[in-house]
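Friendly challenge for the regulars: who can give me the structure tokens for this chain first? No prize, just bragging rights.
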Amino acid sequence: MTLTRPIHIVVDGDACPVKKEIAETARAFNVPVLLVSSYDHLHREEEGIQIIQVDRSDQSADLYIANHIARGDIVVTQDYGLAALALSKSCQVLSFRGRIFSDQDIDFLLDSRHHQAKARKAGHYGKGPRKMMDEDRRIFQHKLTKVLQKLQENDRL
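First reply, four minutes later:
Bragging rights claimed.
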């Protein structure tokens, strides 16, 4: 008999605006959460949430996550590079606003990120992302709930 590791929700925690929604939803489904962030960000311990702090270098949280996720985990990140790595490990990936990343759209998103970086280098700056609203939080929580319900229906939780 082979023992399988339980599914985790793994959060790129440094700039995550939906930590509260993740914690509530994970507790409702009894799914453990791993919140990864740098030492520059303090997070409060909560039931069901394991906090991992990494050094403050640029990609430390992303590298930790990439090295500790497993097939079936749910990764919450806004970083397209980390999303691509998680997808390659057969994880489900959601953005902070509830976008579900897929193999079909990640190449386009990475290419867009590259072109935006080139434009910034040339001195062309956009407005940046719009402010996170309550409706965005509700959408995120709804999408995370749907992902967990689907896993539950398939006896993966």
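The chain has five helices and six strands. The mean pLDDT is 87. Your move, everyone else.
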